[in-house]
Amino acid sequence: QIVGASVDLNKILLDIDNTRMTVDDFRLKYETECTLHQSVASDINGLRPLLDQLTLARSDLETQFESLKEELIYLKKNHEEEMKGLQTQSGGDVNVEVNATPGINLMEKLNEMRCEYERLIENNRREVESWYETKMEEVNQQVHSSGQEIQSSNQQISELRRE
């Protein structure tokens, strides 16, 4: 009986030791989880102001976007109305003056382009005149030769009538 009680006591002591180790393991896990929970909670608390700032910034940017979109629509509408008014006022004549950066002289460029086109027009006019004169000479030669043939034919007819 003593040996049996001793074995039972040893089993109970072993169970108590195992239970203590299990309790220690769970306590360690609990403390680790508590530390992790506190760390995550402090991170969340640290990020909340940033989230609030970003939300406010987003709201502000959305408001600015809507405002700019409305302004763009207004400017387009205003521009179209001004263009229609100017077109009806000018009766089809359009005179555009552009303010450009000082490095680019648009009037000089326009004058150069105008001179270039005038030169091209003059060259085309000369070519057409030359072609016209050549064709007129050919036609005159044909008329002259036809006139000579007619005159020759008339002489032959006259000679044949005399005979």
TrEMBL record:
One of its GO terms (cellular component) is intermediate filament. Residues 51-130 form a coiled coil. Residues 145-163 have a biased composition (Low complexity). One of its GO terms (biological process) is intermediate filament organization. Residues 1-163 form the IF rod domain. GO terms for molecular function: structural molecule activity. Residues 142-163 are annotated as: Disordered. Pfam families: Filament. InterPro entries: IF_rod_dom, Keratin_I. It comes from the Eukaryota. Keywords: Coiled coil, Intermediate filament. PANTHER family: IF ROD DOMAIN-CONTAINING PROTEIN, INTERMEDIATE FILAMENT. This is K1C14 protein. It comes from Balaeniceps rex (Shoebill).
